[in-house]
Design brief:
Blueprint (H helix, E strand, L loop, with lengths): L1 H13 L2 E6 L5 E6 L5 E6 L4 E6 L4 E7 L6 E6 L6 E6 L3 E6 L4 E7 L4 E6 L5 E6 L3 E6 L5 E6 L4 E6 L5 E6 L3 E6 L5 E6 L5 E6 L5 E6 L4 E5 L4 E6 L8 E4 L5 E5 L4 E6 L5 E6 L4 E6 L6 E5 L11 E7 L4
Antiparallel strand pairs: 1-28, 2-3, 3-4, 4-5, 6-7, 7-8, 8-9, 10-11, 11-12, 12-13, 14-15, 15-16, 16-17, 18-19, 19-20, 20-21, 22-23, 23-24, 24-25, 26-27, 27-28
Length: about 325
């Protein structure tokens, strides 16, 4: 493990350049890579979705998708089809987009203002949550709602496990609620944090999941035992967003702190940190490389959002 840490620290000393791409006219809420890593997408308060292709040491802007009538709050790519992604918006719809035809292939009306969305690991189902804590499960092929589940607690983020047989929700009560899937029967309630539990992320290996909370802690959980194995406490502000690297070894966490923390999953040690000038809303590791996409609350001047998407981990200039 120490050899890995030395190697990765050395790697980031030589590869810590940040590339900025001006994409939107307002705050960027969500960034995500396609499953093959060839494209990055961002969704913004300006109602648009931007698609970029990853070139050797930069992003190239490929397309801007418009159609939502309100802020695009979260997006995710199809887990197996690198051309399809889905977006959740405050306009009470979700949209499925295809990068080949560069347009929306489906618009599904929902019952409220949507704030979180995820795709099942097998690609058949999309779950979307709204501001009223209603989660709707939508058939990804017919674009019809299968079922609605109303929760009596504040639902912050939703996700399937990697096997797709459990459905996880983080709550305003600091708990992680685990349901069986597809029958959505409550199985476990984990008391994870003393404060609001904001985000949840599963490692690609299937060993751990991590949660971030308003108590500024990240907790790492063993998925088979459902026990907390360690916490990461270097941030001082509510942890809004998390991402595991493709090898499951690194965890990026971000908040209103002016750094993004990069930690070793197995030890909690700091591997690197990325300086930011403003709070960070979203982070996403590339599915094959040590490149981290992120977006902050950047301003052009005092009152105008800049809508910049950043990627860290490119080789430094020779």
């Amino acid at each position: 493990m120490s050899a890995y840490i030395e190697n990765i620290q050395k790697h980031f000393l030589n590869n810590n350049r940040i590339r900025d791409t001006l994409a939107h006219t307002a705050k960027v809420h969500s960034v995500a890579w396609s499953c093959d890593g060839r494209r990055l997408a961002s969704g913004s308060f300006d109602k648009s979705v931007c698609i970029y292709s990853l070139e050797r040491d930069r992003l190239g802007k490929e397309n801007i998708f418009r159609g939502h009538g309100d802020s695009v709050d979260q997006l995710c790519w199809h887990p197996k089809n690198s051309d399809q992604l889905v977006t959740a918006s405050g306009d009470k719809t979700i949209r499925i987009w295809d990068t080949r035809s560069a347009k929306s292939v489906a618009t599904v009306n929902t019952k409220g203002e949507n704030i979180n969305i995820c795709w099942s690991p097998d690609g058949t189902t999309i779950a979307v949550g709204n501001k009223e804590d209603l989660v709707t499960f939508i058939d990804a092929r017919t674009h019809r709602s299968r079922t609605d589940e109303q929760f009596k607690y504040e639902v912050n983020e939703i996700s399937w496990n990697n096997d797709g047989d459990l459905f996880f929700l983080t709550s305003g009560q600091g708990t992680i609620n685990i349901l069986s899937y597809p029958d959505l029967k409550p199985l476990h309630t984990l008391t994870a944090h003393p404060a609001n539990c904001i985000c949840i992320e599963f490692d690609p290996i299937g060993t751990y999941f991590a949660t971030g909370s308003t108590d500024a802690l990240v907790s790492l959980w063993d998925l088979s035992e459902l026990v907390c194995v360690r916490t990461f406490s270097r941030l001082d502000w509510p942890v809004r967003t998390l991402s595991f690297s493709h090898d499951g070894q690194l965890l990026a966490s971000a908040s209103e702190d002016l750094v993004i923390d990069i930690a070793m999953v197995e030890t909690g040690e700091k591997v690197a940190e990325i300086p930011c000038e403003t709070p960070t809303f979203t982070v996403a590791w590339h599915p094959k490389k040590h490149l981290l996409a992120f977006a902050c609350d950047d301003k052009h001047d005092r009152d105008r959002d800049s809508g910049t998407v950043k990627v860290w981990g490119f080789p430094n200039e020779p």
